[in-house]
Amino acid sequence: MTADGSLERLKREGRIVVVGASLAGLRAAETMREKGFTGSLTMIGDEPYEPYDRPPLSKQVLLGRAGPEGTALPRRRDIGAEWRLGVPATGLDMAARRVRLGDGNEVEYDRLLIATGVRARPWPQADEAALDGVFVLRTRDDAAALEQKLAAGPRRVLVIGAGFTGSEIASACRERGLPVTVAERGAAPLVGALGGVIGEVAAEMHREHGVDLRTGIMVTGLEGDATGRVRAAHLSDGTTLEADVVVVSLGAMRNTEWLAGSGLGAGPRGIACDAGCRAFDIRGIVTDDIYVAGDVARSPHALFGYQFLSLEHWGNAVAQAETAAHNMLSESTDRRPHLWVPAFWSSQFGVNIKSVGVPSMGTEIMITQGSRGERRFTGVYGYQGRVIGAVTFDQSRWLQFYERLIEETAPFPPPFTTVDRRPEGNRPMPADFPDPSVPTHGPTITLSGYSPADRRMTFTPAHH
Amino acid sequence: MTQDILRQILDYSNRADPYPLYKELRRTPVYHDGSGPFVVSTYYEIQALLHDPRISSDARNLASAADDPLAEPGEEEETVLPPSFLKLDPPEHDRLRRMTNRPFGPPHSPHRVHDMRGDLHDIVKGLIDKIAENGNAERIDLVEEFSYPFPVTVICRLLGVPPEDEARFHVWADTLAASLDPDPDADPKERERRTHDSRMELGMYLSGLIEERRKNPTGDMLSELVTGNSPDGTMTTMEVLSTAALLLIAGHETTVNLITNGMLTLLRHPEVLDRLRSEPELSVNLVEELLRYEPPVQLVPQRSTLADIEVAGVSIPKGASLWLVLAAGNRDPLRFEDPDRFDPDREDIQHLGLGSGIHSCFGAPLARQEAQLALSELARRLENPRLLADPPPYRQNAVLRGPRHLPIAVDGIRP
Hints:
The structure holds two protein chains of two kinds. Chain A is an alpha/beta fold. Chain A has helices at residues 6-13, 23-34, 126-129, 140-151, 164-175, 191-194, 196-208, 314-328, 399-407, and strands spanning 15-19, 40-45, 82-85, 89-93, 98-101, 106-108, 111-114, 118-120, 134-135, 157-160, 180-184, 212-215, 219-224, 230-235, 240-242, 245-248, 252-254, 266-267, 270-272, 278-280, 286-292, 297-301, 307-311, 343-348, 351-357, 364-371, 376-383, 386-393, 429-430, 445-448. In chain A, the strands form seven sheets. Chain A has a six-stranded mixed beta sheet, covered by helices on one side. A six-stranded antiparallel beta sheet of chain A has the order 24-25-28-27-26-29. Chain A has a five-stranded parallel beta sheet with strand order 9-16-10-11-12, covered by helices on one side. In chain A, strand 22 (297-301) and strand 23 (307-311) form a beta hairpin. Chain A starts with 5 loop residues before the first helix and ends in a 16-residue tail after the last strand. By secondary structure, chain B is an alpha+beta fold. Chain B is 47% helix and 8% strand. Chain B has 16 helices and twelve strands. A five-stranded mixed beta sheet of chain B has the order 1-2-8-5-3, with helices on one face. In chain B, strands 4-11-10 form a three-stranded antiparallel beta sheet. Chain B has a two-stranded antiparallel ribbon with strand order 6-7. Chain B is globular, with a radius of gyration of 21 Å. Mean pLDDT of chain B is 91; it is low at 73-77. Classes of the chains: A alpha/beta, B alpha+beta. The A-B interface holds A 368-370, 374, 376, 378, 397-398, 400-401, 404, 416-420 and B 48, 51-56, 89-91, 94, 306-309, 357-358, 360.
């Protein structure tokens, strides 16, 4: 207990506001109640729905196996909150401790948690993006509208971008028997997250399942018919592709615009915070009443040279929310750092893909178990002689072991024998990540900072 | 620590309560007395090793078989059958397990276990009715009359053994089970001969059945195993035989003990038994707690190292024999709060009772369902059950640990 009892007072009758009513916001709110917070809790969300789960949207929902309304997140406990749903937060007054809402109201807080997440990067040409039949996939409404269109049996679907979401959409289309073309700017699907060696396997998967995969290509424009429906896409190789559904899957943008001018250290890369989830202001000074969690947070990680990492990972959102909630209600000596090892999964073309660590930092890869030819393998990524990441295709039961190697900064290549080590797996090879100056789809991990990766912060002004 | 703690654990006189010995064992997370196996007894270390690709389940990777004091003649290897996937490493393990799983569980057969629920209920009901008819409420041996016959009958249904052959099947299963339970008084030669004969007879019977199912598939697991075309191909007859034998022995031996240990624990905690009577849905969490508190498989002895590895500061050389004492890990106070307390409401219950990693119990969904159903039905129907011997007589086996008999008395049996 603090000498002046302020923490006890906060827990008893304080006002906590959570901006962002999705996975991180909900789990944080539940954790706060679990820790005995009895004050007022306000949950602000720009969508009209209570928190729902996103991973099924690009899988079961697109297959028509689950309704988009069926993905509500299970509740761990009643959080007794005042919900402000369907209203975006539009501004923050740090000095007065107020959040401004889109409906003109203001909400006062003693502690604020920002978990506004990311949104889909839209198609850059607004008039083309507005064509009927052009979609992004991020929200429940996106999924519902796209599913309806797929169920109507379009003649061809075009997916722009072959990252994880784009690949999952293509997979769902093929499972529904729909003709689908995937246009990817990079050399292969998943190449930004997992590199060219694994991208090659992903490309084979696409093609074997009948996807018309076109790599090294850009969509230069979309064309509608007289009624405003999309009918074709123009590609950078000069060809035109007829498609009546286009899904734009170019990664995500962080929802930080509403913080412009607030004085908080927020920008296109997210909101900078310390390892305890406390937000930085623009002077680089840590705040003590504003916390950040989930996709929008960008925090330093001890395992990766204290670089600031922002992760669009389900598990990270949960773990970071719990840590932020704990710290919001704790004395400084009781606070915990958020030291989650990045982990990610995807399911496409019947294959379960999982990764841990930061594969995209890896310069080399070694197949330590299984075989790429069989689509069941474990690949380990190396960076400057240490293990930095791992990926499994249908072999996730081994992943825990490799996670520990990452935590222990074990040497790369792993020097030991394992079960199921094939002749092809005995040598590390270049992981073949694309030149970072050539954009592919949006990465799932943004790294910035100094050595060991030596990627430096560049200021990118927001385009409004 | 006493030098011979392993011997004490194997010693029959400690079978009824090995937990104090496990506690002592945990003080040295990786125990090695110079010649025998490296014995791992703490939760996190076991958990990590079960996911460690440098650990092999294939006995051919042991530097010396003599390292294994549990090695007994008369086990699977001695027969002409190829090793089952339990004793193989990837990729062979994965291929066989996948092919076996196709007719058993998701994604290809998500309904198999669920759809057996009615059958399981009938079998349980039939066995309890039979106890009621026999009418000796003064002394019921729950092992002989219930927890033994139940899983064998289930395996018969699952594999597709015709009901008229079930009796013969039970006899073979009993003999083979007894072979894992060395009775110090029995003549080892005689026992070996009987085991060998049973195995031969069972093998021949199964081959006959397999041939028949190949011609006239009937939708049971054997039919699916012999006719199933998967991306991995089709199993050879020998592979089907060793898989069927594995399902029979592993599926049966463990469930007997899960149910018997469960009833014993409930009889020692009558307040929980009472609750279960009116709250059958408690059985779900209760069975998980049982798998932690009194796991039927106490330790996994058949593991070896493919490389020199370090565990909890101890270097284990390549080719060493490794024992993972699941039952000790399940009561590790670093992992579980108040681990020696049986708490059917325990929430954080990620036990090691069914293993973990690629060899995690194949039959887990079925075993869980069998135990949940058996315990809640016994609780509901037995009137005022009480133990006639505590501890009851245990089987010899230290690995598959459980009572040989569980004599109880009841006031009556409810309809």
